[in-house]
Amino acid sequence: MTVDSAPAPDLLRACLLAAGRRVAGRTDRQRLTLAAICAEAGVSEKRFAALYPSLSAYQGELAAALIDDIRDTLTRVTANMPAGIARLKLAIETYLEANLAQPALRELLTALRFDPVGAAVIRRRVAGFIVMMELELRTAHWPQPSACARLLTAGVIEIAHAEHEADLRLPALRSTLFRYLDSPLP
Amino acid sequence: MNAARSGLLEAGSRLAQTMPLREFDPARLCAEAGLEADAFDAVFGDLQTYLVALQQRFIERARARIAVATAGIPGGQLRVQRALETYLDECLEQRALRRWLTEAGLRADTHGPLRRQNEAHRLMFSVELGALGWPQPSGGARLLLTMVAEAAVIEHRIGKPAADIRTALADFLARGGPQRD
């Protein structure tokens, strides 16, 4: 499909984000470069530039979309479970698996960390995860659920980062986190 | 050279209290240190090398403070907890410098070197957690230090110790290791 002939902005945006999703979903670590995205979408770089002022502006939108996809997956996977630690563990496992399955997303997030707009996008999404985690911890009568949610979210992101670097699951990190979540409440 | 190096690092700590890292100017740093304008280039050469040295100096001071705070405390959870809280106290007291180092961590050219510097910390805590019987001490140390870094960021923002965050850290330390009946 090519949208170069008559691309309405919304259609072009959707087309480019869909292309980004496809590139990110490949496991060959193909980078989300301007050329790769445009080739995948069948869109010229000129059209791309008419919609997005910079590659990082597009990357921020794509990162938000990809993270929202993961959030939707978590919601779907855990939909029929009661709130609590078991659901939280499944959500964390699903999140980590999604990160491993999309190495391009982690590379995107790493690159965006150095971009003010991209960093703001990441911060908002991380805040969403913290809220989700806090709700589960609160249901489980966890001590200091709000503070703990912040620390655990940082821990989960660190595991995702470490697994991305290693390009494999790191059971020692996952089991350390889960051992804590499985431990008896004080 | 050592005196110039030390003077430039001390001057950086002072300058950090008055300006963000993005306004860093080697000439101003040299003036603050009372040195010739070319001293920065002669000693450090570039900003990345300087920031790594600045962080190293912060780490060494924090370690010295931790050594004093934990002297006489036998190895165990309490000693690790005291060490972590002392580190957080040092972060708060060196708030301006920490702001610079946090800014440096958001720069593509300094993020990696500064992160690698923390590897030594991880090894140290890995030994401590191993002694506490943690099944995966290296993984535990990595997670624990990530949480400590997050705690430092939170306390940096509010400008004082966050009791709930420190309690949550202590809880992870108490329950993240070997399960006890």
Low-confidence spans of chain B: pLDDT under 50, at least 5 residues?
none
**Strand element count of chain A:** 0
Q: Estimate the global geometry of chain A from the Cα principal axes.
A: elongated
- The SS-based structural class of chain B is mainly alpha
What's the rounded overall pLDDT mean of chain A? 89
Number of DSSP E strands of chain B: 0
Query: Which residues of chain A form runs of ≥5 with pLDDT under 50?
Result: none
**β-sheet strand percentage of chain A:** under 5%
Largest sheet of chain B: none
Can you describe what's shown?
Chain A has helices at residues 9-25, 34-41, 45-51, 55-77, 85-101, 103-112, 116-139, 145-166, 171-182. Chain A has 186 residues and is an all-alpha fold. In chain A, α1 (9-25) crosses α2 (34-41), α4 (55-77) crosses α5 (85-101) and α4 runs parallel beside α7. Chain B is mostly helical. Chain B is 76% helix and 0% strand. In chain B, α5 packs across α6 (95-105) and α9 (137-158) runs antiparallel to α10. The radius of gyration of chain B is 18 Å and the shape is elongated. The chains are: A mainly alpha (186), B mainly alpha (181). At the A-B interface, α8 and α9 of A face α9 and α10 of B.
Features:
heterodimer, A: 186 residues, mainly alpha, elongated, B: 181 residues, 10 helices, 0% strand
Provide a brief overview of the structure:
The complex is a heterodimer of chains A (186) and B (181). By secondary structure, chain A is mainly alpha-helical. Chain A contains nine helices and no strands.
